[in-house]
């Protein structure tokens, strides 16, 4: 239905001391081992346009159909290069998957700055990994890069690597797939939650109570061209360390903090008459909730294990944020509110979770068709795939940046913030949105606000201006 096409996780690979770059001869053997070890990278999808979709066995995978190499010219600075990567990422989000019954729906692009680039761009290559969300979730995107990094560094140590280059892989036997969420997570739904949620989602609209609709930019519009745009905001390691420390002091997390900073930005840029209150979403990994029936072989497999929680920021809270002279107090209150809600949600899992109700909907196509022209449920999303940890060896490739974005969500949040970081290094915030649903000026303002908040914090210890 072109409502959501892909998730994308891009990692920046810094060359080893030998100066070795990532070319076909190095990449293909390493990638082949990752694909061979991960069942979800070698299946297709049948009947995607029906409510009876299913994974299918693909007997051969040609890596050349999934891999591209690109050199970006006119990238004299890191900021210019990052802008090019953000544009490339948006392009990947906007591409329709073709022949997915025969070709697994994922791709990687190996991108590098022009050969003349120097300084921080010397020896840098980015690998953009884009994938159909039915195969994997965001955490799996990070895990893919962790596996690929390990295999690339292993390949560096192989003799005559150039002689083993092949792009064709054969899988005559169908793989055993990781279990579906509802098979290995003991979802339990109370009668009250079951009835209320099913009624709210599936009951006749004329009989349901009218919902208060938060600011959501524009209603879902299926006729709007599906074009995803992305924009990056990076924060350096020392600043990130300060943010982590102060979050702990205030009983919250980086995820809670960026919800609060987004709320402060939205409140300052949208008038109360247009946006009296907000709502937002946080995806939650379900990996910690695997039950005893889960096959331990698939514990670290690439797969989909994710739920979410919606936060409400009611009108009095937003009005206080707009009118407060102590911006920091308001920001920390909201950050703590988000963290406390997530704590309660996680503590209750897997009881009363929306994933436990999916089996009651037999017509997902019809379910989504009804959303065309309807208000979106929230204002923004903050999704954090966590910290990328490089291996201890110093002679191989190392990842220095993780840039994570969701594709535009036609029936979901109009603005998404994807957080990815490297241990001891960069925190990157990937902002994504659908072209013409949210204006470029608004997103540029949000990015500028996030930068200003954090820069001011680094310089003064406060997010808000001093009065």
UniProtKB/TrEMBL annotation:
It comes from the Eukaryota. Pfam families: AATase. GO terms for molecular function: N-acetyltransferase activity. This is Alcohol acetyltransferase.
